[in-house]
Amino acid sequence: xxxxxxxxxxxxxxxxxxxxxxxxxxxxxxxxxxxxxxxxxxxxxxxxxxxxxxxxxxxxxxxxxxxxxxxxxxxxxxxxxxxxxxxxxxxxxxxxxxxxxxxxxxxxxxxxxxxxxxxxxxxxxxxxxxxxxxxxxxxxxxxxxxxxxxxxxxxxxxxxxxxxxxxxxxxxxxxxxxxxxxxxxxxxxxxxxxxxxxxxxxxxxxxxxxxxxxxxxxxxxxxxxxxxxxxxxxxxxxxxxxxxxxxxxxxxxxxxxxxxxxxxxxxxxxxxxxxxxxxxxxxxxxxxxxxxxxxxxxxxxxxxxxxxx
Amino acid sequence: xxxxxxxxxxxxxxxxxxxxxxxxxxxxxxxxxxxxxxxxxxxxxxxxxxxxxxxxxxxxxxxxxxxxxxxxxxxxxxxxxxxxxxxxxxxxxxxxxxxxxxxxxxxxxxxxxxxxxxxxxxxxxxxxxxxxxxxxxxxxxxxxxxxxxxxxxxxxxxxxxxxxxxxxxxxxxxxxxxxxxxxxxxxxxxxxxxxxxxxxxxxxxxxxxxxxxxxxxxxxxxxxxxxxxxxxxxxxxxxxxxxxxxxxxxxxxxxxxx
Amino acid sequence: xxxxxxxxxxxxxxxxxxxxxxxxxxxxxxxxxxxxxxxxxxxxxxxxxxxxxxxxxxxxxxxxxxxxxxxxxxxxxxxxxxxxxxxxxxxxxxxxxxxxxxxxxxxxxxxxxxxxxxxxxxxxxxxxxxxxxxxxxxxxxxxxxxxxxxxxxxxxxxxxxxxxxxxxxxxxxxxxxxxxxxxxxxxxxxxxxxxxxxxxxxxxxxxxxxxxxxxxxxxxxxxxxxxxxxxxxxxxxxxxxxxxxxxxxxxxxxxxxxxxxxxxxxxxxxxxxxxxxxxxxxxxxxxxxxxxxxxxxxxxxxxxxxxxxxxxxxxxxxxxxxxxxxxxxxx
Lengths: 309, 258, 331
Prior knowledge:
The complex is a heterotrimer. Chain A is of the alpha/beta class. Chain A has 11 helices and 10 strands. Chain B: Its main location: membrane.
């Protein structure tokens, strides 16, 4: 068990609210014909209601494994996941997942509207209400008037927006995203990033996203959970106290953004190395002392890894 | 691109060449077993059009439709059950593989005993010939679906009939339709052969009668009707299949199983 | 790109294969019998290959062997069982068999369609006690005579077997209207059960199936022998025949076979029990069953006119459009 700082957001920790999501000592070992593979060693962190938290880490750090366990798609080998205090032992209600590969997660035989309303209809939302929620969600991702089209008639970025709209219309307590913007071009990626931020305000959702893009993690998140190389543990939790509203231009030009980016990148490349920059200058809470008091060093030896692309 | 053009070209050239070759050979040989095309065509018109259509062709087609639909629907139902229940499938697979190898035509006497004389026997044999292929391909189609779809339905808690009808069956549609297409041709053959026992009307019964009467041009007319029927049904099915799959944004599958 | 037309082609090929056992083999010879003329006939010198539909009177051949009539004539027979008369004809036309043995309907139909077949020898004739077949009905069916079969569904072994001709003829003979009957082809082995189960109202049957069916299903009764009902005593019953080509290519062997058979017939007519004893096993009958069955006297030579009753019936029941010219066949 690594010593991890209490990651609770100071304001919320002060309010004494229990975390929406609690991950305790999560471990996952895969059995393969070639032997066992310890993908996740020991991962512990909390996410509070309303937060956006990114999970980053070197390649093969089991980021997606962690997310699949959170979604209840995968049973952990050890440890547990609690959502609103309830242990997860299967896909819990009120949790949506935006899959990495939109081309496989959208049903080509359904219209855009059919794809977005499918989970709602399954949750016995009346037809008219489901359609109304779906159309609102589609409008909020900029897809007005596209509801009658088939997914294949849309560009990749638009298809991923449909997948996001499906998750939004579902009105989840917790929105999980698995490298949601990995399959789209750079411009679309920025558009989608800027789409997510106001949506959080609009829908009041808690978001956990897995990404290999450090810029994206820092740009979107309130906190970044950095995983070590496998068997992965939480190498650090970095608070991102950048002001809202964030924007691709002003936020990314902010020197604090650069420092955070640098630090997370260092952590990803050498999860054991002490960070050479400090940040979160605007947080002064006691809880934050733990954060600045710094990053846990995993028990296992840390090997130099090639940075992600 | 060239392959695309070549296939229909061959589809047209080869049959035309064969037909021409046959006509040349038949008129040269003057063998009663090889009647000329005009003779076959005359027999075709007298046997299968007019009253012959109502007496023989229509009952055959009705049996074909009933047996085919029965086989497809029961195969679908069984295939769904097997595709969703992994253990049952594992337990029954050897039995099904065995059943797939049974030629329905060889089982005609058994069906005659079980179902008796009458259209129900023909319908039963046709349904049998369709059932196992549709069964195995439906369960295979369900099982081989993209795991991403299972994740999707799990996360969004899409279950029961909605999951089956809206997600799983459409995903398995290429398999199921390919099996149905293959079975259509088999069903036409089984229909004709099954009518050679225990039936006094129908395309098969008339063709058997022609063979026993040494009326070869009528026998050939029977085979011609079978060929026309098979080609027509297959072509129509293929067009419908492609249209359905294109609308669903899927690609036709190659035939699996069997 | 998958061919739209491939699958049906397979289906047609399969049907051709189904029919191959019968008609298609005729293709082997091309214009009837040319293969035999070139000397590629199936039997060796003095040997004749005979395709037969198994029956009690095949005992005649066994007697011919046992009494040395065949050996004296220098003829050796190779006997092959065939499932139906039409297939015997097809085998003979194709040169697969030198001789065929069956009842008269298939060869007469083939002759009418232009196949040059030759009668080698008649065998039995319709005797006082008929042949060895009957028509089964259920006792509770209300069918008491052939007349009552009008409009009924009747199981028969093949649509163009002689029995399928004599049954409607019997109905007409008894004063009924045969036009409404429905003949359903069924294997002999299943006819008893089909009648018992009510799937057909009546069933045409031959021994040994008749005895078995009557023993198995107590509710069945034999209505009578339609054959005997329609055809006068002494009518030709079955025959050995060959193709024109084989008749030429093996003229001498066939002539010697004919003579040996005539001698055997003389002997057999005086010893019908010996024929039954020898033929019983061939027809799947026990010695006891065989001994009880009627077997008409053998009469090797017949005149074309003696087939007139049959060909008239064939025309009357629309099997043929016109009576065939049998001069080449019998002559």
